[in-house]
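Subject: Thymidylate kinase structure
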Amino acid sequence: MNGQFISFEGPDGAGKTTVLKEMVAYFEKEISGELVVTREPGGNPISEAIRKLILDPQNTMMDRRTEALLYAAARRQHLVEKVIPALQRNAVVFCDRYVDSSVAYQGAGREIGTDDVYKMNLFATEGILPNLTIYLDVPSEVGLKRIMNHRKNEINRLDLEKLDFHKRVREAYLALARQYPDRIKVINANQEEKVVQHDVRILLEEQLHSRLRG
């Protein structure tokens, strides 16, 4: 697989999806070749159906291990149906969340063990990891405040968790960044939006330099 696989990560309220949209708008004009934009859980009909099940605020009885297994199942289907074929076509793949999300949210947030969740996802993905992961970091208090102020019509089951849950998630992300510094690059998302976008764009230009026009 000769393509480039780039994931975007961050705790709730980091502005990840907004930044990703801006990067897509910019790089689809700059990249020589195909740009595939996708998300997890989701990206295909089966995984989107699992996403709806996982994030439904009414599913309060869902067991934490059930949740982790559903994420892994959605990831597997997404990988074989969309990501791997794109990489085999030499495309650039921008993915909104990937394995690190499960390690942070289910492993640490749900407290079922980051190592166990990581190993389960290595099985699901056959060890396929991104070439680059951009992690947008923001204090948990700031992220939750943003959610309540700007996402009132889109709040899902994970958004409703208490502050301690979100702090565990953030701490796990930062631990992953320390463990895998060559793959995971940390961006301070508690800055002006234009500054965050600039910092992310610089990272992407470095990663994709051989794929850029001009």
